[in-house]
């Protein structure tokens, strides 16, 4: 417990210090509120617009989670297919890597054009941004199976499907989850960007409206909320990872112990 | 006769030429014997095990087990590779039942059987630990438990004690002898330690440098069960000296 406290305390102190400097800076310099509000001002604005923010948060969360689940599901399926069929790896995987350079924000208007202003195109945009890190990481993980572990299984008479199920898949899980963690940080952001392009509600809409009315304090409120929910999503993935791949964390802990001893 | 290797040959294409690794190896192994293989590093010992286990097909020759040809076929031996190859995502117990799972046996029954064996393998209380938590000796024993659980009557052990410190290694040797009394098997055992080979074996086969040929072999007449005191006896030392000279003599 003491060790954990010692890890958490420094960043917390840094944040507190930062907020104090910010507050003091704004007050002493007398900078305009609509340019840079003080943390206290943001807090007040947060309290005042609480219900409005809530109303705009739920649609965004809905788009983000649906898109996240869709993106990850498709990514996992495609990664497994790419691993199982060499011609898919040769034919599709390079394109997949290449297509990562296509900015989603440039494709988004197209999706809006095709599918309208409803929920679906936004879910699709989130799915697109979360899809790539997961598929790439999982394919990498699947193809980096330890050859001796595979040989051991083969010597027992295992077939290809058993080798996949007993070695390749479980050993790819940590990579899958690191891809998913990256995806988790993109999820909410993807939904917000999708909303910029056309929506009547959501944090993206709230952001644009705040900007248009020169309400910097509300922009900050939106930033806080987006960060908070991104963190929640990230922590959720982390929790699932801990549950699904306990050995990874045990190994890390043992390594740390080993380092301390030497 | 448990196993018969007939004129095995293995070579690989390496940069335009063929690299010969196994050269005319013929060996018969009687049921229930413990045979050690010693030879210089890189001579082809592991390659021979790969062939016997069916992981590799020899370029020539046959592998016959219980009178049936099994050349290039897997699933007839229990092979403990040079690395312990414990799956880090499986607990000790789950690692132990790997072969049962591959064979499509009832997993719950296999788990029960493995659990009963834990204390024999000095792993009591570690059933649900991940390999990362185990010491080197324990990992080796867990790998051996997995080997035992495979229910094969022929074991190929590739330097199972190579990574252990001297003291743990001696303990593991005695422990292995005990295990084999409990579960009599036919064992082929690769080692770099002459002491270990003499102490454990009924026969010791000496390989030449690559390409591996059988240079000579020695039958060990020490009484069983083996005791540590034997290691200072005249016949033990004689066997050691003979093997040492064979291993180091020029071609
Ligand atoms: N697939 C392969 N292609 C080319 N050369 C190979 C291949 N497999 C093995 N060799 C060569 O065969 C030789 C014997 O390898 P092997 O692993 O059998 O040696 P070893 O006797 O087990 O050595 P060690 O005592 O170090 O474990 C090595 O020189 C290796 O480079
Ligand atoms: Mg070897």
UniProtKB/TrEMBL annotation, chain A:
It is found in: Cell membrane. Its main location: membrane. It comes from the Bacteria. Residues 57-237 form the ABC transmembrane type-1 domain. The keyword Metal-binding does not apply. The chain crosses the membrane at residues 12-30, 64-85, 92-117, 123-142, 182-199, 219-250. It is a multi-pass membrane protein. Keywords: Cell membrane, Membrane, Transmembrane, Transmembrane helix, Transport. GO terms for cellular component: plasma membrane. GO terms for biological process: transmembrane transport. Pfam families: BPD_transp_1. Belongs to the binding-protein-dependent transport system permease family. PANTHER family: ABC TRANSPORTER PERMEASE PROTEIN HI_0355-RELATED, ALKANE SULFONATE ABC TRANSPORTER-RELATED, MEMBRANE SUBUNIT. This is ABC-type nitrate/sulfonate/bicarbonate transport system, permease component. It comes from Melghirimyces algeriensis.
Automatic annotation (TrEMBL), chain B:
CDD domains: ABC_NrtD_SsuB_transporters (cd03293). One of its GO terms (molecular function) is ATP binding. Keywords: ATP-binding, Nucleotide-binding, Transport. Residues 3-234 form the ABC transporter domain. Pfam families: ABC_tran (PF00005). PANTHER family: ABC TRANSPORTER ATP-BINDING PROTEIN (PTHR42788:SF2), TAURINE IMPORT ATP-BINDING PROTEIN-RELATED (PTHR42788). This is ABC-type nitrate/sulfonate/bicarbonate transport system, ATPase component.
